[in-house]
Amino acid sequence: MFAVLGVALGVGSLIVVIGVMNGFSSDLRDKILGVNAHILVSSVRGGIKDYHSLADQAEKVQGVTGVTPFVYSEVMLSNKHGVKGVVLRGIDPESSRTVLSLWDDMVAGSVDNLVRENDLPGIIVGYQMARRLGLDVGSQVNLLSPSGSSGAVGFRPKVRRFRIAGIFKTGMFEYDSSLGYMTIPEARTLLGYKGDIVSGLEVSVADVEKAPAVAEALESRIGSFGLLVRNWQEMNANLFAALKLEKTAMFIILVMIVLVGSFSIVNTLVMLVMQKTRDIAVLMSMGAEASGIRKIFMLQGTLIGFIGTALGFGLGVPVSLLLKKYQFIKLPSNVYPVDYLPVKLEMLDLTVIGVSAMVLCFLSTIYPARRAASLNPSEALRYE
Hints:
- By secondary structure, this protein is α+β, with helices and mostly antiparallel strands.
- It has 14 helices and ten strands.
- Helices cover 51% and strands 22% of the residues.
- A hairpin with a 2-residue loop joins strand 2 (64-79) and strand 3 (82-91).
- Helix 9 packs across helix 11.
- It is elongated.
- The two termini are 30 Å apart.
C-alpha cells in the first residue's frame, strides 16, 4: 500500500510541476512574441532607408505571414504626477496588425486613436505606467526626446505634448511599465529623424519553432552589408536556456520521489519473499522452475508500479487541469512575468513520465525476484 502511494505521489507531483514549467515557458514565449516580432531585421548603420522594397522581398519568403517597419528609441514621459522613462516604438497601424498583439492587449482606447486629433498626436502606454502616473484615455503628457538643440545655456532637449490614445496590458510588468507606441511619422518628428527612415523591420512567421530556418532564408534573400537578421530564439537565448535547464533539474529532482516509491516496492517484495519462503520451496519441489518464480515476483512488482503510476496520473492530470482552468493561484505581477500560475500538459512529457515510472518500478523487482528464484527447497523445508 505504501509503495503504491509513494509511486502515485511521485508521478502526480511530477506531472503538475512539469506542466507548470511548460505553461510558464509557453506563456512567457507568447507574451514576448506578442510584443516583439519573431524575426527582427535591423541595420548596423543606425537606420534603414529602402525599407519598402525590403518589406516586399521579405513577404515573398515562404513561412512569412507579416512584415512591418518600426522606429525604436528611449524617451522621457512626464506629467504633474511624475517622470518615467519610456521605450518608444513607432509603428505602422496597418501593417503591424498581423505582426504584433497590441490590438488584443488593449484595455482602454484604441490603436486607431493614434491619428492626430486637435493638433495633438497620440501615444499608447502600458497599464502599469498609466497607474503610476494617473493616466487615462485623453490625458495629456510631455515627451522629452534626446534629440534637441544647443543654445546659449547649453543643450536643450526637444519637448512635445501628446495625448493618451489608449492603454494596453500584456500581463508582463516589464512591458506594461515601460513601453509606449505611436505612429512612425510622429516618432520620426519627435526623435529628429531626417527623411523616410526606420530602425528596422519586424517579421512574423506561421510557425514560431521554424523561425530560425525562415530567418536564414530571409537573410539569403535580402541580406546585404549592414543588415542584421535575428530570430526570437537568438534574442532570448539565455532566458529560454535557463527555463529549459530549470525544467530538467525539476524533472530529475522529482524522479527521485518516484525512485523512493520504487524502493518501497523492493522492501515489499523482499518481505513477501521472507513470508512465503515455505510456499516458494513447495512450488519448486513440485517442479516449478526458477524462471517461473522470478516472473511471479516481477509481475507482482510491475503491477504495483502500474497501479501507482495510474493513480499518479489520476491525481496529477486533474489537478493540472483545475489549475489551468480556474487559475486560483495568483502571483505578484511586479515580481514574476505572469500574474497567475500557467499550466500546459504535453503528451510527450506525460509519456516520458509514465515510461520512466514504469521502468524504475520494473527495475526494483529484479533483486527480490532473483532472491526468490535462488531459494534452495531443501534448505527452506529442513525444519518444516
